[in-house]
Automatic annotation (TrEMBL):
Protein name: Acyl-CoA hydrolase
GO biological process, one term: acetate metabolic process
Keywords in alphabetical order: Hydrolase, Transferase
GO molecular function: acetate CoA-transferase activity; acyltransferase activity, transferring groups other than amino-acyl groups; hydrolase activity
Membership in a protein family: Belongs to the acetyl-CoA hydrolase/transferase family.
Gene3D superfamilies (alphabetical): 3.40.630.30, 4-hydroxybutyrate coenzyme like domains, Acetyl-CoA hydrolase/transferase C-terminal domain, Glutaconate Coenzyme A-transferase
Domain annotation N-acetyltransferase: ranges: 452-607
Domain of life of the source: Bacteria
């Protein structure tokens, strides 16, 4: 290992070489600046790298005769160069990029890296960026290092011995930071909905940006969370301090957080510095779907620029132009899908360009690239709710996705799908938001130690409602319908789930069985002709009648009715339905006789 001087470059760099630049916050900027000063001595070099968070002086056109840039991911500087044809973009999953180097598909001649000073045994740490850098360095002819005593020293598979380093420079400078983003109302709303899909004991993958931070912000009530993530960022710090992250139930690397690189504030760099509970490994390991799948209840949270109504995901392009890259999204989506109890979640705002463009689309934009297929994603989340895709037919997922699109675009989306025959003609209307339920229409219920969810009944619940109907015994059918109906056809079920929620109300309580939602109770009211009174009705599955579901539904219906200035709620209850009579009496409904001697009329004034 020799100290690099101004005329040493020609010893290690030859015309036509391929050079890897270190990544992210550990990009060796001072080393690269010195190399650029000597660039005039070289021609036809290729500079490859993953991403940076600062300046990219190597993309300056003045170097076009000396080298060409080839990036695996597009940051702002590289994006403009690629779009203008002055740089190249190589799409590749992060899990597979290291193999391009080790299998000589893209052999690396020289690796420019940043490391910590050697320890007593002579080992230097790659610090906050192991990602693709370790494999590139190990396979290179020469490693040239920027030794920085301000680079955090991290643990894991991140060490280079000083004898592996051909040449070096010494610096003492802070590594670049990324400010913590301010969370807005829409991203916080998305975070609330995503948090409803995360259980105690889940293992998380979350990147940088507003949406991952918003999700993490809403997990302070969760327990025994684990972390196996491509990138470690500030959003995780509060969960560590709050005791939400323990890593003790992961099933692999228990007690430790696993990541491949770290980007964020000074605070997060200080946290990972000399922290044995956080390990950094290369993306060939961290992003390997078979490794990801070994984590218990793995949750992949990523974003997209577009989602079409069949479930195709666009994430690396905007309007036919390359925007970012493949990155590790598909690695984690598929790893989470293979994990026992795992879930892949796409979270995104419903619109772009100040609300003028829907991100939920009937057809993806011309030239856009499909990052994840119709079979990859379990859930899509916007500020309007959660769409369940796994195991859902094209018709069902169309309805799921329309109900989380922005209301301004729902009618057009439904029209587009009817024209292409993806939904039948009887599906005419789109759901309306229920503002009276609060800013989140899905309410988590902890009942006898089990999670249930109260939410509006939606058109996408058509098959779920049929399944609920056919699960009833004869007594339940008779008490609810005054007879024993034998069937609930598709069109009839659709009419029942397609309630005009701006006038009437239909709520349900569902149980999640993996990605499957099972309706366990339905409560609704219909506004009568005079407009000031509504009739209430309930049905609860026989196996769920000791959990207070009817009371929970009635409380919400009363609250909505009061907010909508209704005067009365009424209910017709069979005389022998003692359990339902007790529910209405509990909420001060007065009882009156009915023209039908087998029934009682319950009535509640709301003013």
């Amino acid at each position: 290992m020799e100290e690099l001087t101004g005329n040493s470059w020609v010893k290690y760099v030859k015309n036509g070489y391929r050079i890897l630049l270190g990544s992210g916050a550990a990009c060796p900027y001072t080393l690269i600046d010195r190399f650029l000063e000597a660039a005039r001595y070289f021609t036809d070099l290729e500079l490859v790298y993953l991403l940076t968070i600062g300046k990219t002086p190597w993309t300056d056109p003045k170097y076009e005769h000396n080298f060409r840039v080839n990036s695996f991911f597009l940051d702002q500087g590289t994006r403009d160069a690629v779009r203008s044809g002055k740089a190249d973009y190589t799409p590749c999953f992060l899990s597979e990029i290291p193999a391009l180097f080790t299998e000589n598909v893209l052999p690396i001649d020289v690796a420019f890296v940043q490391v910590t000073p050697p320890d007593a045994q002579g080992y230097c740490s790659l610090g906050v960026a192991v990602d693709i850098v370790m494999d590139a360095a190990k396979s290179a002819k020469y490693i040239i290092a920027q030794i920085n005593d301000q680079l955090p020293r991290t643990f894991g598979q991140c060490y280079l011995h000083k004898d592996e380093i051909a040449a070096f420079i010494r610096v003492s400078e802070p590594i670049p930071t990324v400010p913590v983003v301010e969370l807005d109302e829409i991203t916080l709303q998305i975070g609330k909905y995503v948090s409803l899909l995360i259980e105690d004991g889940c293992t998380l993958q979350a990147g940088i940006g507003k949406i991952p931070d918003a999700v993490l912000n809403k997990l302070t009530g969760h327990n025994d969370l684990g972390v196996h993530t491509e990138m470690f960022s500030d959003g995780l710090l509060n969960l560590y301090r709050n005791g939400n992250i323990t890593n003790r139930l992961k099933g692999i690397h228990e007690g430790k957080t696993i990541a491949s690189f770290c980007i964020g504030s000074r605070e997060v760099y200080d946290f990972v510095d000399n922290n044995p509970h956080v390990e950094f490994h290369g993306t060939a390991y961290v992003n390997n779907p078979s490794v990801i799948a070994q984590n218990s209840k793995m949750i992949s949270i990523t974003s997209a620029t577009q989602v079409d109504l069949t479930g195709q995901i666009v994430s690396d392009s905007v309007a036919g132009q390359f925007y970012s890259g493949l990155g590790g999204q598909v690695d984690f989506i598929r790893g989470a899908g293979m994990s026992r109890g795992g879930r892949s979640i796409i979270a995104l705002p419903s619109t772009a360009k100040n609300g003028t463009v829907s991100r939920i689309v009937s057809v993806i934009s011309q030239g856009a690239g499909v990052g994840a297929t119709r079979g990859d994603i379990h859930y899509v989340v916007t500020e309007y709710g959660i769409a369940t895709l796994r195991g859902r037919s094209i018709r069902e997922r169309v309805m799921e996705l329309i109900q989380i699109a922005h209301p301004d675009f729902r009618e057009q989306l439904l029209d587009d799908m009817q024209k292409s025959y993806k939904v039948p003609a009887y599906q005419r209307d789109t759901p309306s938001p229920v503002r009276e339920l609060g800013d989140t229409e899905i309410i988590r219920l902890d009942i006898q130690g089990e999670d249930y969810f109260l939410r509006p009944l939606h058109p996408s619940d058509q098959r779920r409602l049929q399944t609920f109907f056919y699960s009833h015994d004869q007594a339940t059918l008779f008490q609810r319908y005054r007879n024993e109906p034998k069937k609930m056809g598709t069109a009839q079920a659709y009419r029942l789930v397609n309630t005009d929620l701006t006038r009437d109300m239909a709520l349900c309580i569902v149980e999640r069985q993996g990605p499957r939602e099972v309706i366990q109770a339905v409560g609704r009211y219909y506004v009568l002709e005079d407009g000031g009174e509504a009739e209430v009705a309930f049905v609860v599955h026989e196996s769920m009648r000791d959990k207070g579901f009817a009371s929970l539904l009635l409380e919400r219906l009363i609250d909505v009715a009061r907010q909508r200035k209704l005067n009365f709620l009424t209910a017709n209850v069979r005389f022998d339905n003692l359990s339902m009579r007790r529910v209405f009496e509990k909420y001060q409904f007065t009882v009156q006789t009915s023209e039908d001697p087998s029934e009682l009329v319950y009535r509640l004034p709301l003013e």
